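Input set for joint prediction.
Command: fold jointly, output tokens.
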Amino acid sequence: MGKRLNTIKSKVAEMLVINSNREGNKFLEAFISVLILANVVVVMLESFKGYKLKYGAFFEVFEVVTVSVFSVEYLLRLWVADIRYPKAGTVGSRVKFVLSGGGLIDLLAILPFYLPFFVTTDLRVLRSLRLMRLLWILKLNRYSKSMRLVGQVLMSKKTDIFVTVFVTLLLMSIAATLMYDIEHEAQPDVFANVLDAFWWSIATLTTVGYGDIYPITGWGRFFGGVIAVLGIGLVALPTGIISSAFLEQLDAQKEKKKKKAEKKKGVEE
Amino acid sequence: MGKRLNTIKSKVAEMLVINSNREGNKFLEAFISVLILANVVVVMLESFKGYKLKYGAFFEVFEVVTVSVFSVEYLLRLWVADIRYPKAGTVGSRVKFVLSGGGLIDLLAILPFYLPFFVTTDLRVLRSLRLMRLLWILKLNRYSKSMRLVGQVLMSKKTDIFVTVFVTLLLMSIAATLMYDIEHEAQPDVFANVLDAFWWSIATLTTVGYGDIYPITGWGRFFGGVIAVLGIGLVALPTGIISSAFLEQLDAQKEKKKKKAEKKKGVEE
Amino acid sequence: MGKRLNTIKSKVAEMLVINSNREGNKFLEAFISVLILANVVVVMLESFKGYKLKYGAFFEVFEVVTVSVFSVEYLLRLWVADIRYPKAGTVGSRVKFVLSGGGLIDLLAILPFYLPFFVTTDLRVLRSLRLMRLLWILKLNRYSKSMRLVGQVLMSKKTDIFVTVFVTLLLMSIAATLMYDIEHEAQPDVFANVLDAFWWSIATLTTVGYGDIYPITGWGRFFGGVIAVLGIGLVALPTGIISSAFLEQLDAQKEKKKKKAEKKKGVEE
Amino acid sequence: MGKRLNTIKSKVAEMLVINSNREGNKFLEAFISVLILANVVVVMLESFKGYKLKYGAFFEVFEVVTVSVFSVEYLLRLWVADIRYPKAGTVGSRVKFVLSGGGLIDLLAILPFYLPFFVTTDLRVLRSLRLMRLLWILKLNRYSKSMRLVGQVLMSKKTDIFVTVFVTLLLMSIAATLMYDIEHEAQPDVFANVLDAFWWSIATLTTVGYGDIYPITGWGRFFGGVIAVLGIGLVALPTGIISSAFLEQLDAQKEKKKKKAEKKKGVEE
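tokens >
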């Protein structure tokens, strides 16, 4: 019987390895993806009072079912961890899985649901916990090939992106401080403190421009104009970074093809 | 007489094949393009009450003429389908044409006009049917070389574009749900449900920012600022994708030239 | 004396050829550039009533001086045209210059000033004619190296840019027509006709979003959201085109260097 | 004792050379970076009246400490200047350092603090001087590797960026002048002079679109639409320039690798 269990175990392990070409896996991937997206829709529908009154019970059942599926998935992954990390030993392999990126996301996906059983929480916290279901989208990343691709492009440029975000925050801080100093006297209610000015600098540098807050003095407009023009550069920087990342990928693929062709030629000669 | 008909038929077939270099074809292409654009103008003019009262009769005649031209074009294409798909047989070639991309667009272009003859419809539906004429613009794609080019560039990256659109929709859903949760209490009328918050997230992520809906609480502004900055990345992603597509095209052309030059060199040696 | 005149003539001809490396030319280029920019500033200052009352006389003198300089420049260019087009004959060379791109811009730059002497015009037309001085900026293009560079990049992609503008206009027309149909009943004053809707579609597709006009119905918001997302693509297309144009230029320069290096190597061997 | 001083001096010189791999330097870099960022935070906190009353004394002490650190740094750099510029002599090397880019920024960073001791100033100027602390961010550039990288990319394209900014300013001037002429009569309060129109043209060309100022006449909207579409090109130009700069960097790195590989191959043969 131990043998039969081992066969099942290795089959489960194989099934849970994403990207293998088994037919069943594709079905599992699609199923989990649809389940996650359906939950996003349910979370949105719950905001309509009419729907919540009518279908509230169904929404809750749906949540329980999803959490159950993810809990079983987590336990199965925990069970077959020793196949995935054969060198780490019985306990070590489990610890390795729990602390791995995927393992942490999986735990985060089910933990908020079990929390109220252990800790007494008020209603407001409970509602926030239910919103945590949106975190399930992080699981999507593992189950969808094309999303992984975009993720890889972004990861390959993470230093550049980090620097851009940092420069942006710095620029926003300076713009906010100066604009507060310029406009505070003319519009004491609108530019009440630096945080209001920060909100203005975000709206301006991202070129969103809601129109709820903007300079009205001459110097404020002059300085605001300079910041708005810099905002264009702010859009240009990440675009340039991401463009080059996509082109790099392209070049890498070409290089591969070329090498293959050269190898073939070499063999023929 | 059958022979003479066949000659005419093959001439018609030749005429309807786009991109051939016959002088008459260029005229036909220009004629159809102008006809479609004129219809777009007419649809727009019809929205002015003054024009509709004065020129309403002319507008209707113009529509009938255009539909007639497109109907004749469709019938001719149906007639010569067996020349285009010689292997598919008399009936099979027609079916193949009707179900082809171009065939479906051609049918869609004339069908709404004939519908009211078969089904009884109220006035509102009728008016919408007349707007369907804007679909004729899809026909333009077949008749204009340069539009095909842009279309090809976009098609070559359709997977990437699809993923971007999908990620965008997901991001919008999450942003809307969270922003609704944050701002609903402070602005119960503006953020009445998730759909209102969704409208906000579209306006913010696309950096349009009409200013009809925006966060006013501290947390709402903090979260809104994060989303606005992510919106820049959202603009950067498709730009990067399309830039690389244009450059790929460029490289492909160069590669071709290079190969030609190498061949020539080889012959000379 | 004819000989001396010829020497002067060829010197003038040389002086007026832009891009030659003569020291005097650089001074002339700088002088004309500054003159043009000063006129832009003057046109702007004239809009302030206080300045106009105080310095109106000076502004007019300045305009007369500039027009005089440009008139002399035009006559000199006309005079030396037979040196520039030696094969075209005495009259033919002048006609060739007048009809050339540069010649037409030069004529356009001075013509509005002389028009009131020949035709009687009312005050409103006169004021518009004075604004025509802004056209002098087109002359800048000939006198500034770096502006020529950007101009060349844009020219090298003029077909792509034209197609993009055309697609944009088409998309705006469709968006305007549909949005008018959707929102006219709910907001009969804001979306009074298709032109209003067109103004909305411009503000949305360019992501400017002033906030003076936007959809309020459910379907209007849905459709407006789709158009706003398409607007991102609209920004992405020209960016991709221009990026590839800049890179093409870069590659061309590299190719040149490479060829030079190879030639040198060949000679050494 | 002179010898011991020299040893200390050369150690200080080594410590102050950025980018060396000594462990202590990394600590110094981190310390100065944190100090600068903390000052930005303090400047922002000072805008909140509550915080200023409560922690005003601490804020001032913090400023004095930072200025002291930077003053000591400046004096040390002045002291070891003859090691950095050994050929320039005792006085010459100090002058060289003071007039170098880094030296000027360092001086600018501490000068505003000492100014009130020499010149009598009113309160308003004093407050502005305290804002000068934001200039310390320029020092960050020297202490952070990744910020230097982005700076280099921007510097490598400074001519193109300058031309773009110049063309943008020109376009804004023309747009403002024309829009003022068109809209002044219909909205005499909103478009009061060309400066108001300039503010409109900035908001439109950068696609910020606050919504505080926009055309309402037919011609104004037509012209405004053209400018808004040109605004897209304005975003596309710098993006194209920066994209190509990033790709150039990438190519340069590849070229290097390739040459290394070829060299290695040559040696092996």
